[in-house]
Fold this sequence. Notes:
Layout: H1 6-22, H2 26-37, H3 53-58, H4 69-72, H5 97-107, H6 120-123, H7 170-179, H8 188-196, H9 199-209, H10 216-227, H11 236-241, H12 250-259, E1 279-280, H13 289-292, H14 294-306, H15 311-316, H16 324-327, E2 336-337, H17 359-367, H18 395-405, H19 429-437
Antiparallel strand pairs: 1-2
Helix pairs in contact: 1-2, 5-10, 7-10, 12-18, 17-18
The chain binds heme C (2 copies).
The site of one heme C (HEC) has 28 residues, from helix 6 and helix 7.
Amino acid sequence: MVSFNKTSVFFAKIFAKxxxxxxxxxxxxxxxxxxxxxxxxDGRLASVTNGTVPEAALLAAPNQPKTGMFAxxxxxxxxxxxxxxxxxxxxxxxxxxxxxALGKLLFFDPRLGGDASVSCATCxxxxxxxxxxxxxxxxxxxxxxxxxxxxxxxxxxxxxxxWAGSTPSLESQAPSAARGGVAGNGENDIMEAxxxxxxxxxxxxxxxxxxxxxxxxxxxKAIAAFERTLIQRDTPLDKYLxxxxxxxxxxxVRGKTLYEGKARCILCHNGAxxxxxxxxxxxxxxxxxxLDDGLAQITFxxxxxxxxxxxxxxxxxxxxxxxxxxxxxxxxxxxFRVPSLRYIAYTAPYMRQGQFYTLEExxxxxNRGGFDEDGNTSSFPETKSPLIKKLDLTEDEKExxxxxxxxxSGAQIIIPKPKLPPYKPLFSLAELEAAxxxx
Length: 439
Ligand code: HEC
Ligand code: HEC
């Protein structure tokens, strides 16, 4: 490895920009990047040329960083960690206290689902980090899901939701959750009819939206507004980044330097959200549960079918292709949206099918260059990111990094389950008895 110097970073950046603008061919990009980065071309650079321009631009950063180096080199592709501001509010769904109160009831109400037994909060349980503490999420009754459940906390900040970033807003996410076959499995018209039979909802929807009857679309808007209040930005990390250096131990300060340098986390988990919201294959191996749990296997096949996979793929698939489902580009196989690392103290297990149970396991996985303890890596090694490298962290450094990650979460957010409003009785007991007597 050739040592890194400022001039080569400068030129590498310029060339990376040219690559972005001109989308030059594979051969040229590789030719330019190898000498400039001083990389030996160990074959992994080949995947730089897969059309993921952000990765090419990121490679302009030093190849073998000294501690803290990514943070000290200004690169617009790697925004520094920053305190989290308030979440964005879309113009067509302004916040109000009444809307949030209604959204909260709906989030906890199982009548927004197929058999009225599963609410959003059933799977996104406040006591389980607003998520579900198993590797793969529970599903609609009689099923298991096929991916790990994400937390709702801070979901308001993402511009794309779900592991493969398939949905652009909370407003459009809620119906896919309530209607999805292995999630809520609800029908729009039935869910809407139920809302209209609940007098308290009729009153509240009318007050919030000014329409005579509850509509299912307004229900999603209210839920989204409630989710925008589920944020945690009072964390040691936010305090430290706002200038209160006293909140960190020396170990956490060392961990921060590793995060921004030798451990390379900052390359993807950056900015205020600690996610650049781009897609990478980092080498997480396939879910073991699909090998021995029949119900999980069925959902896995069902998802392939539902997402329009070819017959051949449907029959042979052994892993989640992630972003590939959306663009059918072979270089997208196994790529997932970078998740935020905020609130992770409460959201184990980790990764898209909960492949790792602890943060220690996650750090070991990255330290090995994206391999689990048995040496397994992605089912799609050809798309594995060149940004994932063996890190050579010592035991002490791993502990420092873990101590730093512990500053990302703040206090747990627990709210008591609200009391849900009842259906309007269709008839009184006296009317029922009279009708029976008349038979
Ligand atoms: C049966 C369990 C289940 C139910 C019910 C459920 N979810 Fe989810 N939710 C999940 C799983 C699993 C994921 C991740 C799925 C994926 O990425 O493919 C998820 C993802 C999400 C995300 C994305 C978070 C992120 O980081 O991108 C949001 C927001 C969300 N759910 C909100 C809701 C809302 C609102 C409801 C109720 C209308 C709901 N969920 C109902 C299991 C569930
Ligand atoms: C090349 C980009 C990249 C780099 C570098 C990177 N990550 Fe990630 N990280 C991801 C992606 C993408 C996922 C989701 C992968 C999946 O599930 O297949 C992820 C997932 C995670 C998760 C699981 C979060 C959850 O909610 O389940 C943790 C924890 C994590 N990374 C920590 C780290 C740490 C610590 C480092 C540095 C040692 C690091 N990451 C470096 C892209 C990256």
